[in-house]
Each structure stands twice: as C-alpha cells, then as structure tokens.
Amino acid sequence: MSRPLVVIAAVVAVLGGLAISVKLYQQYGDTDYAGQIISYETHDASVDITFSVTKPDGESALCQVRARSRDGAEVGRAEVSVPSDGETVTMTYTLSTSGDRPVTGEVQRCYPAKR
Predict the structure, then answer these.
(1) Is the model's pTM score more than 0.90?
(2) In the chain, what's the furthest Cα-to-Cα distance?
(3) Residue 26 — very low, low, confident or very high, per pLDDT cuts 50/70/90?
(4) What CA–CA distance (Å, rounded) separates 94 from 97?
(5) Angstrom distance (rounded) from CA 105 to CA 103
(6) 96 and 76 in contact (C-beta within 8 Å)?
(7) Quick one: which H or E segment has residue 6?
(8) Residues 91-106: pLDDT tens digits?
C-alpha cells in the first residue's frame, strides 16, 4: 500500500471512531436526564404519549419521542420541551403521524435543553 493510502485510511478510521463515540455519548452519556414511557394511546393519525422525565431540579430538558407502525417503520418523531419545575416531570404529548397507523409510542432519549 502506498503511503498516501495509509494516511487516508488512518484518517477515515479516526473520524469513524470519533463519529461513533459522539453518537454513543449522545444516546447514553448524560445519565442526569432520563425519560420513561408511562403509557401511549394510538389513534388513526396520532399517538398520545405519556412519559416521565427525571432531570436536575430547575433545569429544562428536551426529549425525543417517536411512533412506529406495525412493520416497525417510524411514522412520527418530535422533540418535546420539558419545563424546569421539579426533578421529575410527567407529560402527555400528542404526536401527529403520517403513513401507516401507529401501533406504539416511545421516548427515545432526553437531554439538557441548553446545548
């Protein structure tokens, strides 16, 4: 292998590792913010998602919620603002969907509102 190809391969490997690290941190890194699904109720073109969020008291948060169809395809996604009052906040959010009828509502992750 020529030297330029080795350098390019090394740069690609480092950038790939960095991208994976950032993605994993975004998903699992901040344990101070956690969302827990309580219930969901599906309708023809929406799903009502009730969930609780645990976070530092006095801090606001953002949570990603989504809906899936019977075949597992994502049919709706939104970012929900969680107010700063209290350490644990329970919320209900109506997520509009498109395509197939939703069969599930999920909380993907929660994180600080100030980024």
Answers:
(1) no
(2) 60
(3) low
(4) 10
(5) 7
(6) yes
(7) helix 3-28
(8) 999 999 998 899 999 9
> How does DSSP assign 43-84, residue by residue?
-SSEEEEEEEEE--TT--EEEEEEEEETTS-EEEEEEEEE-S
Instruction: For residue 10, give both structure tokens.
Output: 């090394």
The C-alpha atoms of residue 111 and residue 115 are separated, in whole angstroms, by 9
Q: CB–CB of 107/68 below 8 Å?
A: no
65-83 average pLDDT score? 95
Under 8 Å between Cβ of 50 and 92: yes
Our measurement of the distance from residue 93's CA atom to the centroid of its chain's CA atoms, rounded to an integer in Å, reads 14
**Across the chain, how many H-helices and E-strands are there?**
1, 6
Residue 29, token pair as written in the block:
């890194």
Q: Phi/psi at 108 (nearest 5 deg)?
A: -80, -55
